[in-house]
Design brief:
single chain; about 675 residues; alpha+beta; 8-stranded mixed beta sheet; 33 strands; about 30% helix; extended; nucleus; transcription regulation; chromosome; DNA replication
Length: about 675
């Protein structure tokens, strides 16, 4: 028998919802840590008095009772765990683990027993159900009736709202009312906050970021009272998980963050964090509403009756003493800004500050986010979507949730990468650090010019000219009118040129390769061989499963297969590949897979005919283009000299055709936007 016993996926019920975690039995204590909140229950071994083994909805469970009246229940054990735990309890705790069955008769009358913080409803000395009195929010009485209302949990799919007990009247000779006695027992242990007595101290008009506004904070021994103009909140100290004291980036302001579970409510809004905002320059002299002896006895030197100092120091000191929890401050991380222990970023389109802590990250403030390293599966450094001057920091949790902190300055990249690497978090894009540094380098000279790229596009793609004009039109027109035959001083306007659009040649479609049905079939991979052999087994284990779900399930099973089993299927795949290659070689040697000479010749003839047609059509188009260019001038061209007559132009055209000189195509106009003209 070892010194410790550890169990994973052990469930603890919290106000109607099941939270999983890890339970460890050691010689000194029993420790349970919740996976969701990170809250730790520590039960000293000397305080254990009763241990009960029960069959519950999640297998088997253990109920532990302590000498000071606390009860802890943990479920999710297997039947085979009983012997190990029983022997461990006898050897180390000197406590016997007794088996006790729950009553499942379904009766609704029995005996109500108050045992510490639990109300147990029993039938024939067997428990039917148990109610943690800490979950009771209200207790009302009526004639022979007691009504219990419960705190609601947003994480629970189904919530129990209230339970009513019928209490029969007692004998007439008894003076006590049984209904009031029942209700008094409930109220003594219920989580009903009653402001009895004076507050220990009061902080006036503190600025609160979440929930927003200014509140008076009244500190009571058991709870915290926020009194505002519109809303009031009473926060029991038992709901406080953690305390954070965070300096702002400008080193002139401080944030005091209180993590709550369950959260406080304002309508349909839930606030999991209470954030107080202070200025470092604010000073306060505080006097506690208690005697010095009482302060010393209750808080053991953590507080004194008269205190003075910065306002944020007074608030954090009082909260630390009353809540009895440590205050978390930033660690050794230093940002790019001198003295700053945080990073400016945005989360959900809201700007805020990200603090890398020793055991997690916390984002302040809208909405506040706290991520512990133990619940983070991986992080990723991604390039910013809008500019290269910033990057995004993505955090993915083991539950599958993703948090993206964007618009982080590129100068913070090296510091944040080194911090994450030192904390041994899994980085998805590890190895791209140098590439990222180059990526975030100054690139003002290489900024993208959209207009320039649009102008370069036709040249890059090799497009032909879309607009063609006659570059020698001015010479031909001025040659006939240069002798002064036309009327001097009268200039005829240039005729508009017709646009000639060149037709693009269509590329012949590629013929699809015909599959050779006589060739040997390709071999299957190791995964496909395994899938074919396991498909029927998957169907039998999951009746009614669809084809797509079979593939998904098979993929998950294949990932979980060990290396030795995979090597077996890899060997089968290699054998199938060798068999295929041998069969393919024999098939090709026997003349399979090659086309007949007759088919090849017919393909050559068909190809030759197509080339002749292309040549003819290409030559005809060229002649048309050349002829068209002789008779038209561009739309933008305006002659500065007198134009020749139509007859002279026709004669010049015939002379050029006779000589066989092709019309020059020196200039090609590309598409221009606007009413630009050629100079």
């Amino acid at each position: 028998m070892g010194d410790t016993l550890e169990f994973n996926e052990i469930y603890h019920e919290s106000k109607g919802s099941w939270n999983d975690g890890r339970l460890r039995f050691s010689k000194q204590n029993v420790v349970y840590k919740s996976s969701k909140t990170g809250k730790v229950d520590n039960i000293p071994a000397a305080e254990l008095s009763v241990a009960t083994w029960r069959r519950v909805c999640l297998g088997h469970g253990i109920k532990l009772a302590t000498s000071n009246g606390h009860v802890y229940k943990y479920d999710g054990f297997r039947d085979t765990d009983y012997e190990r735990i029983s022997e461990f309890f006898k050897a180390n705790y000197k406590v016997e683990l007794t088996e006790k069955d729950m009553c499942v008769k379904g009766w609704n009358w029995g005996t109500a027993k108050f045992s510490g913080p639990l109300l147990s409803f029993d039938v024939n000395d067997s428990s039917v159900f148990e109610i943690p009195l800490a979950s009771v929010s209200q207790c009302a009485t009526g004639k022979n009736e007691v009504t219990l209302e419960f705190h609601q949990n947003d994480d629970a799919e189904v919530s129990l709202m209230e339970v009513r007990f019928y209490v029969p009247p007692g004998p007439a000779d008894e003076g006590a009312d049984p209904v009031e006695a029942f209700a008094q027992n409930v109220r003594s242990k219920a989580d009903v906050i009653q402001a009895t007595g004076d507050a220990v101290c009061v902080f006036k008009e503190l600025q609160c970021l979440t929930p927003r506004g200014r509140y008076d904070i009244l500190i009571y021994p058991a709870f915290l009272h926020l009194h505002g103009k519109t809303f009031d909140y009473k926060i029991p100290y038992t709901t406080v998980l953690r305390l954070f004291l965070l300096p702002s980036k400008d080193q002139r302001q401080m944030f005091f963050v209180i993590s709550l579970d369950p959260p406080i409510k304002q309508g349909q809004t839930r606030y999991h964090f209470l954030i107080l905002h202070f200025s470092k320059e604010e000073e306060l002299k505080l006097t506690l509403n208690m005697s010095e002896e009482e302060v010393e006895k209750r808080y053991e030197g953590k507080l004194s009756k008269n205190m003075s100092g910065s306002l944020y120091e007074m608030v954090s000191r009082v909260m630390k003493a009353l809540v009895n929890r440590k205050i978390t401050v930033p660690g050794n991380f230093q940002g790019n800004t001198p003295g700053a222990q945080c990073i400016t970023c945005s989360y959900k389109a809201q700007s805020g500050l990200l603090y890398p802590l020793e055991r997690g990250f916390i984002y302040v403030h809208k909405p506040p986010v706290h991520l512990r390293f133990e619940e983070i599966s991986s992080v990723n450094f991604a390039r910013g979507t809008t500019t290269t001057r910033s990057f995004d920091f993505e955090v993915e949790t083991k539950q599958g949730n993703q948090f993206t902190f964007s618009s982080i300055e590129r100068e913070e990249y090296g510091k944040l990468f080194d911090f994450v690497n030192a904390k041994k978090l899994h980085i998805k894009n590890r190895g791209f650090k140098e590439a990222k540094n180059n990526e975030y380098s100054d690139s003002d000279d290489d900024q993208h010019d959209a207009y320039l790229e649009r102008m370069k596009l036709p040249q890059l793609l090799g497009w032909p000219g879309r607009y063609v004009y006659d570059s020698n039109a001015s010479e031909s027109d001025s040659g006939s009118g240069g002798d002064g035959s036309g009327d001097e001083g009268k200039k005829k306007p240039a005729k508009k040129a017709k646009v000639v659009k060149e037709k693009r040649e269509r590329k012949p479609r590629k013929e699809k390769k015909q599959k050779d049905t006589n060739a040997p079939k390709r071999p299957m991979s190791s995964y496909m061989l395994w899938l074919n052999s396991s498909r029927e087994r998957i169907k039998s284990e999951n009746p009614g499963i669809s084809i797509t779900e079979i593939s998904k399930k098979a993929g998950e099973m294949w990932k979980q297969i060990g290396k030795e089993d995979k090597e077996e299927w890899d060997g089968k795949a290699d054998e199938a590949k060798k068999t295929y290659e041998k069969a393919m070689k024999e098939y090709r040697e026997s003349g399979g897979g090659s086309s007949t000479p007759a088919k090849k010749e017919s393909k050559k003839k068909a190809g030759g005919k197509k080339e002749d047609k292309k040549r003819k059509s290409g030559g005809g188009e060229k002649e048309k283009e050349q002829g068209g260019n002789d008779s038209f001038k561009s739309r933008e061209f305006i002659s500065s000299e007198e134009s020749s007559s139509d007859g002279e132009r026709k004669k010049a055209k015939k002379a050029k055709k006779a000589k066989g000189k092709p019309q020059s195509r020196d200039k090609v106009l590309h598409c221009h936007h606007g009413n630009n003209r050629m100079n």
